[in-house]
Amino acid sequence: MNFSLTYDKETKELIQNRINFTSKRINILPEQLRAVFPHLLETEMKFKMNEDISSYIDHTLLKPDATKEQIKQLCQEAIDNKFYAVCVNSNRVKEAFEFLGKNSVQLAAVVGFPLGVTDTNCKIFETETAIDNGATEIDMVINVGRLKDEEYFEVLSDIREVVKSVDESVKVKVILETCLLTKELIVDACILSVIGGASFVKTSTGFSQGGAKVEDVRLMKLVVGDLAEVKASGGVRSYEDAMKMIANGATRIGTSSGVKISKEKNDVKQNQIDSISDQNLNRNSSSSSFVNPKIALCGAFLTAAISGFFAGYVYQQNSQNSNKKNPKKKK
Ligand SMILES: O=C[C@H](O)COP(=O)(O)O
Question: CB of 106 within 8 A of CB of 137?
């Protein structure tokens, strides 16, 4: 499946203005920052959905009252449905690691969750502990208050320090908590995440005033281009929701409804198969090619027999008639 996003004039202007604004806050030249985002010169961004939706899903359980048994079930569901990852609180990483065993499902730990306001040193310690216990990805919450205060050095350093504390192979996702941000701050947070070295920008914790919105996912993708990926999370409840996020640039879906989404996707697939079969049945109901061959053969035989009978009858009638017209001919 192919998708594309267009840089409309308004969005382009917004992003360019925020690059200027952010560059001043972190004390670099706007040209230097602009050079990091060359895709902003394009008019369109194209991308593909190559794989099954299961491989987009971070199967998530972050409730404070989640039990060991529920973590076990989460891991088993992720294995059974071939989800990309499970996402758990850092204190549950050890158990999730054991439950996942040698399966290829990745293990993401949330850090500074859900408020993002813990000290950077706490985030680093939490990150390192989670990695030691088997986490392969880190979902850290940005410091929203400092972002709103325009303390961009602090926000950048918070991200940068967490990224630096892990091996390059570990993907760090920065949760922006978009429901608390203006469009302008979403763009700034994306810029800071990219230059901080994050692999992903992620919309929401699922614990604040709102979750992922299509327009936010789209804006985030237009800012980060190919420099980072976008994870849509919080309130993604259906296959339709998930597909909308993917069509707008998300390459990962963080959701506690992964099993439902996967099932809905299979139902959609089954419906498509059923409708194709129905179409075939309707198309072929008037032709013999879809009929049981034995019945077709009997039918053909009967048709031939009846035609033969009629042919014989017509011939006989014709002969009788011609004899009547020309009695000599019979002799
Ligand atoms: O990071 C993922 C979210 O916490 C999941 O939120 P959700 O329960 O609304 O799907």
Answer: yes
Say which DSSP state 110 is in: E
Pick from 155, 159, 186: which is nearest to 172 by CA? 159
For the question of residue 202 being annotated catalytic, the response is yes
- Give CA torsion, residues 248, 253, 254, 257, to 10 deg: 110
Q: Is the pLDDT of residue 153 over 80?
A: yes
- At 68, the amino acid letter reads K
Active-site position among 171, 231, 244, 265 = 231
267 flagged as catalytic: no
CA dist 11 and 310 (Å) reads 79
Q: Is 224 in the pocket of ligand 1 (CB under 6 A)?
A: no
Return mean pLDDT, the chain. 87
Tell me if 109 sits within 8 A of 137, measured CB to CB: yes
For ligand 1, what atom is nearest to the CA of residue 204?
1
Q: Give the span between the Cα atoms of 210 and 208, in whole angstroms.
A: 6
In whole angstroms, what is the distance from residue 51 CA to residue 285 CA? 36
User: Which of 144, 234, 161, 233 lies closest to 198 in space, CA to CA?
Assistant: 161
Q: Which residues contact 310 (CB under 8 A, 6 or more apart)?
A: none
Task: Encode pLDDT of 189-233 as tens digits.
Answer: 999 999 999 999 999 999 999 999 999 999 999 999 999 999 999
